[in-house]
Design brief:
ABC transporter involved in vitamin B12 uptake, BtuC, 76% helix, 370 residues
Length: 370
């Protein structure tokens, strides 16, 4: 009897742990990350590499010294902005797959303002960053307005706007007004428009630290407050949960949808503008879309569609991107990082689908009992 009781207790404990993982988004994500690295280890073994050595280099590249950590944060900053953009739209019932185009427009307008205007330092940088954010807001607002007033899917519109932004950016970069002679890049923006800082050069060396790294933290906090502590956030989330109920409660659904996509686009535009003014200094003719907006979708998913989660997910993503470059030292393909992140995303998606299915079955059974 004691043996049976101990087995029952053990089974009950295991069910309790699994239940917590199933219902806890953070634990859910940790399990997905573990699975991603486990499958990555299996792939490494198959192609003839030592997983411990490869992962040691990867994590050393992410966390090995302060300079590496700052590089990881630099990589993460634009991805956190686009992750916040996607998260904001998700929270209000919209799928903004157009963060890529909004990011491009943000960087493009910041470049144009940085080249064309002559303003004092600090003010010039602020104008460029805000101008880039507003460009992203307009680009997102177009998709929101078409969704709100014409019923056009925001997914379709944002995909088309991504390619429109891509082509328009190349047209502007290669125009006589902005093209650097004998190159496929734009001229460099004025020094007064740059938002980078050399204050920590002795500690971090050549890492391009910039004020966008601080701005992204502020953006995370502001987005969390808007969504959770303001009337505007409540209205936007209400529209996302149930548009009919929101309309019945007196909320203007079209205005809410347009506002949501505009705010989402503003965040992605800030990502492009801060990257341009803080790191790049100019734009190169694009051969393909850079992927910041699509990385933002991954960041949002891994972060549990939560602003705070998107911040830490973005840091993880940026660290993986920068640390992954160190894998070349032992000839491990850097694409391994993409495989791991892809497995994490698929795991979260599949497990999330099972959670939804389980809740549906449970609700159906309870309804039958009643």
């Amino acid at each position: 009897m004691k043996r049976l009781d101990s087995k029952a207790e053990g089974g009950g404990f295991l069910r309790s742990v699994l239940g917590r993982i199933w219902n806890d988004t953070f634990a859910f994500t940790l399990v997905a990350i573990f699975i991603g690295f486990a499958i990555g280890a299996v792939i490494l073994i198959i192609i003839g590499f030592n997983p411990l050595q490869a992962y040691g280099l990867l994590f050393d590249g992410m966390l090995g010294n302060p300079r590496f950590r700052m590089y990881a944060v630099q990589y993460a900053t634009p991805i956190i902005f686009t992750g916040l953009s996607v998260t904001f739209a998700f929270k209000t019932g919209l799928f903004n797959i157009g963060a890529e185009g909004q990011y491009i427009m943000g960087s493009l307008v910041a470049m144009v303002l940085g080249v064309s205007l002559q303003l004092p330092p600090v003010i010039h940088g602020i104008v460029c960053v805000l101008g880039g954010g507003l460009a992203g807001a307009v680009w997102g607002g177009i998709a929101g307005a078409l969704k709100a007033y014409k019923g056009v899917s925001e997914v379709i519109v944002t995909i088309m706007l991504n390619w429109t932004a891509f082509s328009f950016a190349n047209f502007v970069i290669m125009s006589d007004a902005f093209k650097k002679p004998a190159s496929t890049a734009s001229v460099t923006i004025a020094e007064s428009a740059m938002i980078n800082t050399t204050a920590f050069a002795e500690r971090y060396g050549r890492v391009s630290l910039h004020w966008g790294m601080i701005l992204v933290v502020v953006a995370v906090i502001v987005v969390w407050i808007i969504l959770n502590k303001t009337t505007l956030g409540f209205r936007l989330r209400m529209v996302g949960y149930n548009r009919d109920a929101a309309e019945y409660a007196g909320v203007s659904v079209p205005v809410s949808i347009t506002t949501s996509m505009s705010v989402s686009g503003f965040l992605a535009g800030l990502g492009g503008a801060t990257q341009l003014c803080g790191v790049l200094g100019n734009l190169t003719q694009l051969g393909n879309q850079e992927g910041y907006g699509f990385d933002g979708i991954a960041v949002s998913m891994i972060g549990g569609v939560n602003p705070i989660g998107a911040f830490f997910s973005g840091l993880f993503f940026g660290g993986m991107r920068y640390g992954g470059s160190k894998l070349n030292m032992i000839l491990v393909p850097t694409e391994l990082v993409n495989v791991i992140i892809g497995v994490i995303m698929y795991t979260i998606a599949v497990m999330g689908a099972f959670r939804i299915l389980a809740r549906f079955i449970k609700a159906k059974r309870e309804g039958q009992r009643l």
